[in-house]
């Protein structure tokens, strides 16, 4: 007796997921091709954090003491890895907003493709770019004298937390880019990147700030990832007595999960509701 093959209907979840991933990969390749035509933009984006490391490590490092001892440069590098995950977010916002303003997004929406493919593809392309940028930063840190003192497993865990933060922040940028009225509106958001980066434990111990400002800095998601990365890399950290600082590892995983849970659905819904 011949066995009967049962086929899933075309509208079943698995075929829909496969089509969505295939469409997202197409969008990813589109963005990667754009970068291949303009490699200078990508290279400058990768080298800018290196310049920031040289500026803070070389100009200000000698004047900053690390709580509990240790060199400031080793304290700084995990923080700069974290800040690198924030850098370039305005590029994501601008690209999404520009596509919407030029009608590219409307064109995608008119095609027989998954409605989530555009935002997923953009996120995937930017994640690949982020991996390259983080690799450049780690290489620069090693050349300048930074090193990790834990095992390879702990170092990979630190890299994983850094990329998890980047993944979460990308969904924040995609949502803002879709919700913005045009490329000009993104400019007002771009000026917040530096305050968010500085108001954290990336460069200094939040305990050295005024109490109210230090509390805000300690609850900054960047602070949790920077503290967790320092712990996993075996680099000097600032410790801290507050609950958020004592549970940096937990918060370094919890903050990104929360951001993704909020902004991924918002991004998908905002894309579907864009006016044609």
From TrEMBL:
Location in or out of the cell: Cell membrane; Membrane
Regions crossing the membrane: 42-64, 76-98, 119-148, 154-179, 191-213, 248-266
Pfam families: ABC2_membrane
Membrane topology: Multi-pass membrane protein
A cellular-component GO term for this protein: ATP-binding cassette (ABC) transporter complex
GO molecular function terms attached to this record: ABC-type transporter activity
Domain ABC transmembrane type-2 stretches: 40-274
Keyword terms, alphabetized: Antibiotic resistance, Cell membrane, Membrane, Transmembrane, Transmembrane helix, Transport
A single GO BP: response to antibiotic
Family as reported in the entry's similarity comment: Belongs to the ABC-2 integral membrane protein family.
PANTHER family: NODULATION PROTEIN J
Protein name (record): Transport permease protein
